[in-house]
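Changelog note: in this version the structure field was regenerated for every chain. One regenerated record is shown below for reference.
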Amino acid sequence: MNKAKELVKLRKKAFKLWSLKVRAGGACELCGKKYKEINEKGKPTILQAHHIIGRENKNLAWDVLNGVCLCSNCHKFSRTSAHRGSIIFTDWFMKKYPDRYDYLLKNYMVEVEPTVEYMQKQIEKLT
């Protein structure tokens, strides 16, 4: 397999592992709804992993400290969701996780090249 294809495969695997780790708590960190708990619309709660700093930041993309577990409503759909109410969400995150917030600010500008070796190390950390 050539390096480019191997890198794509490793990145995909790392994102899956990252998502599993972030969602491992089994409940939305914002509203507390548990996985498969019936929500206000009568449907089972789906949990999703949300990047605080976007996944295009390769230094933090696979860092579990850069993720929170959210139900789909808190992630994307409510007025105060991570995607629609980003200032509200950021304020919540900063107050709930001040150490993680500081860590992300400190590491935000660090640039890395996601080589095959780098990705293998990320996968190792996540397993």
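Spot check on this record: The chain has a mean pLDDT of 95. The longest helix spans residues 3-22.
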